[in-house]
Write a structure and sequence with these properties.
Length: about 325
């Protein structure tokens, strides 16, 4: 209750600045995700499975705390199916994205994952009939030329087939877009963030684990050092990073969320260069810059006149 009172005491501009700082912090934390996975040295299915399995513990605690603070009548049917489907798509995303890291590096794979913004806009148009603005159309050349530059150069990073790595990353971005789209519907239906995230995380662990068992790539007994990196990965990405971004993005305009995605990519590239010595070529940097510029253009939206009213309404939603 004290948190809600303190939020109500803030003006619209103060609350927006506060939420923007939270999103920036979450995005910078998320930039460590691909680096921590690569440091673990495990297979993609193993990393995705344990990342979500370990995250269920703190998420479960958060669900219990949240329920004690603001109990709500349970209407499972409207949101639980969406959460389960979202988790399955996130499992696909994580496996393919981790595969792409082996081919094009941690930083560049995260940059390409920002194509999710384009796919989310397309989903919004097809499913909810939301208009696709001129900004998105103008961004298409930047996005596709940028991907071509990243994929078309000879590899100087961690893998031998950058084109395959980029293809995996693009497909992962599409799956991730479905995850974001469905999770948005699920959190609105559930009236909170932690509970749908807990359910979707469980579904993600199941999907990644099933893929690993079928493909024979799931290692149920990683080394102690790998387990340490995976625990840190779960806390950094699945719990802290995304809870920060999800909680604040409920009250921010789309342009602020887009800025967080750009910072995530920049953070990942910096961490990849510093911690993993992954130095991209000038052409790859140019392609990555074009992708980032395209994401910014695609998500640029005019500020709503009734932003203060919207903020007031959305403060009722539990995080």
């Amino acid at each position: 209750m004290s948190d809600e009172v303190s939020l109500r005491e803030l003006s619209g501009d103060q609350l927006r600045r506060r939420d923007l700082r939270v999103v920036v912090a979450g995005a910078c934390i998320l930039g460590l995700t691909s680096v921590l996975y690569e440091l673990s040295g495990v297979s993609p299915s193993t990393g995705a499975f344990f990342r979500c399995l370990y995250a269920l513990i703190p998420l479960g605690v958060l669900v219990l705390v949240q329920r004690r603070r603001s109990p709500r009548p349970s209407t499972a049917a409207p949101w639980i199916v969406k959460s389960l489907l979202a988790g399955a798509f996130l499992g696909i995303d994580l496996v393919l994205w981790h595969e792409s890291i082996h081919s094009i590096g941690a930083g560049l794979s995260t940059v390409i994952l920002n194509l999710q913004v384009l796919f989310v806009a397309i989903l919004g148009y097809v499913v909810l009939r939301q208009r696709i603005g001129r900004e998105l159309v103008a961004s298409l050349p930047l996005l596709f030329v940028g991907v071509a530059l990243v994929a078309g150069t000879s590899t100087t990073l961690t893998g031998s087939n950058p084109a395959v790595g980029v293809s995996f990353a693009v497909i992962a971005a599409g799956a991730y877009a479905v995850y974001i789209f469905l999770m948005g519907l699920a959190t609105r239906a559930a009236g909170r963030t932690a509970l749908p995230m807990f359910v979707s995380t469980g579904a993600t662990a199941f999907t990644a684990g099933a893929y690993g068992l079928v493909s024979g790539t799931l290692d149920l007994t990683p080394s102690l050092a790998a387990q340490g990196w995976l625990v840190l990965l779960a806390l950094v990405s699945q719990v802290i990073g995304w809870l920060l971004v999800a909680s604040a993005s409920q009250r921010l305009p789309a342009s602020a969320v887009a800025a967080s995605l750009v910072l995530q990519s920049a953070s990942a590239m910096v961490f990849g260069a510093v911690l993993l010595a992954q130095t991209p070529t000038l052409v790859q940097l140019a392609g990555a810059g074009m992708i980032l510029a395209g994401v910014v253009v695609a998500t640029r939206m005019p500020a709503k006149k009734s932003s203060t009213t919207v903020v007031g309404k959305r403060m009722e939603t539990s995080v």
